[in-house]
Design a protein that fits this description.
homodimer, 343 residues, alpha/beta, six-stranded parallel sheet, six-stranded mixed sheet, 12 helices, 12 strands, 42% helix, DNA-binding
Chain lengths: 343, 343
DNA sequence: ATAATTTTCGGTATCGTTGCCGGCAAGGTT
DNA sequence: AACCTTGCCGGCAACGATACCGAAAATTAT
């Protein structure tokens, strides 16, 4: 049972030609119904399965999508699940690679997937990435490339993301409405578009409410809990410490929360906190953390749909840009003004 | 630039035969150094890349590993990262599929990966799975199959896991030593081996300390937070409620914690709690949850190493079984006896 | 019965690559 | 000078499948 049966085995056993067998298995025409029956019966018996490699080699497509993500945290793994869902439905298999937020690893992954002859890419770029040559190589080969979540203007491609600017705005406006005056922002690396957009929303909100932007309240640090923790500790030592923090990810919000607690401050009374992504952990900690909800699963599905669409319109290059709207979920960490008539 | 250059293009341009080009590119022997130089130069210029499909078709192997996991939560995504790490190093690319804890989905995934002609599988079975025919199909084709984390005796294959029995024992013994008397266990579905093993450890500890097993303290529920929450709520309504709970996963421990808090009980004074996996969330909640540490990344690496080993020893069927040892991390949720001279 | 048509099938090329074999020329050995 | 080695290269087959073309067989028309 070691070797898989091939079309040739069937042909030999039935004493007919290979081409006839092939036709009997796929094409409806050009084959007598008796022979077809015989072929199908034997194929069943031998557990014949067409060899995808051979077909792929001929057709020059593998029905495989290369997906590169910076990591597989809660949000991204939800997105991948969305991608998977749609891709499977459309007859595609997904190869997921993690870049671990490393530029070098991203290049290796791209190369590997190109080698594997995937039919195209769905990508979320690493936070370390500042050059996009490796992705442009994909486009030079005329392979479809969809960017999701972490979108950047440096890479022109169909994309799916949420409106990060609006998300940042919602979070900040909410803090302002709650009466916070000195609102800090924990942003990511300066080259990370997603971070810049959220910060732009933050700035827009300040402007709308005529609050002066204070540079020392704008912190750039790595996109993770530890850095956020240390950045917040420093922030709280300022002579005029912030009375609210908008962290552009929940991971960072958690880091901030730990620092705040260590500093003996109460949330939301002494300091307000809003995160981003609405990860499940936000409702597990005390106080629960307000967060901008990210429709991750839907976003993944949209990305895969856009990919399928792109691959079917190989001729007309479309550069669609899908933008989903985020919404703010207010929780204890930022609700200073108690609601009187709560439902 | 649409089509990738092939060996044939090089041959034509240099007016030499295809085989010579092939030899120039790989084999060191049998080709004049002048011609080799010319070939390499032209290959460089045309950005020649060997077509993996053609090679795979010939060699009958794709250098791809199919990985099927029930989900991509923290623990599993760490394991996948470990697998990825080792696989990449060894020249393999990984295709990750999520079964979403669904039996049907697992079958579809297996079939897809078999179709894609992966060289073998590294699998963690879904909690819903009771029949293993789809996996046995893999073995019938003589493809290497390594099972990790969720191992089951129904599927004979090389495997990597932690000693779940020991983990369960450590957790339970610790609770006993802290003076808890009525220790409940939140276990998973009855067909989930990983759960049964941890429960066996729990029973072993009870036996060692001559504590009678009470059936009403043994709860089977689905492997997630919600079910654990509801199960715990019920548990706490018993006339003789438990004074400690061992949850066989941190997710379930979180569910239990929520129910405990809602019930107005204090941890660790009124009730002790120990989880399993040592997910980061355990130190974010209040009180911090004691947990049995799972060396997830290492386990993933070990699984991939075992896979590589298996694939290189195709002749001698090895059924190695690697067991990593867990260790207990004691935190506030279960530390009733305060340590006097803490460091 | 013969011609015209339709059905059914086999042969061949192709996808891109490599392994095997055989051939030819240059150089070395008796 | 006849033989043998070695270096270098091209042709062919094969991996598994399908598309295309033309031919044989079967059917229909004349």
């Amino acid at each position: 049972m070691d070797k898989q049966a091939t079309i040739k085995d069937i042909a030999k056993q039935l004493n007919i030609s290979i081409s006839t067998v092939s036709r009997a298995l796929r094409n409806a025409t050009d084959v007598k119904s008796d022979t077809r029956k015989a072929v199908l019966a034997l194929a069943e018996e031998l557990k014949y399965e067409p060899n995808r490699l051979a077909i792929s080699l001929r057709e020059r497509q593998t029905h495989t999508i290369g997906v590169i993500v910076p990591n597989l945290d809660y949000v991204l793994s939800m997105m991948v699940r969305g991608i998977d869902e749609v891709a499977l439905e459309a007859g595609y298999t997904v190869m997921v690679c993690q870049s671990n937020e490393s530029f070098g690893r991203e290049i290796v992954n791209t190369r590997r997937l190109l080698d594997s002859l995937v039919d195209g890419f769905i990508i979320s770029v690493s936070s370390e990435t500042k050059s996009f040559e490796h992705f442009k190589k994909i486009q030079e080969r005329n392979l479809p490339l969809v960017v999701f979540d972490r979108v950047t203007p440096d890479l022109v491609a169909p994309s799916v993301r949420i409106d990060n600017e609006e998300g940042g705005f919602l979070a900040t406006e909410h803090l302002i409405e709650q009466g916070y005056k000195h609102i800090a922002i924990l942003a990511g690396p300066k080259n990370l578009g997603i971070s810049n957009k959220r910060m732009q929303g933050y700035l827009n909100a300040l402007k709308k409410y005529k609050i002066k932007k204070v540079d020392s309240l704008i912190i750039h640090c790595d996109f993770n809990q530890d850095y956020a923790y240390h950045a917040t500790k420093e922030l709280l030592l300022h002579k005029k410490r912030p009375d609210a923090i908008f962290a552009i990810s929940d991971r960072m919000a958690i880091g901030a929360m730990l620092a705040i607690k260590e500093h003996g401050l109460r949330m939301p009374e002494d300091i307000g906190l809003v995160g981003f992504n609405n990860e499940p952990v936000t409702v597990l900690v005390t106080p629960q953390i307000s967060s901008v909800d990210m429709p991750a699963f839907e976003l993944g599905k949209a990305a895969a749909k856009l990919f399928i669409e792109t691959i079917h319109n190989t001729e007309s290059v479309i550069h669609e840009e899908i933008v989903l709207r985020p919404k703010l979920l207010v929780r204890a960490s930022s609700q200073k003004i108690k609601i009187k008539n709560a439902k």
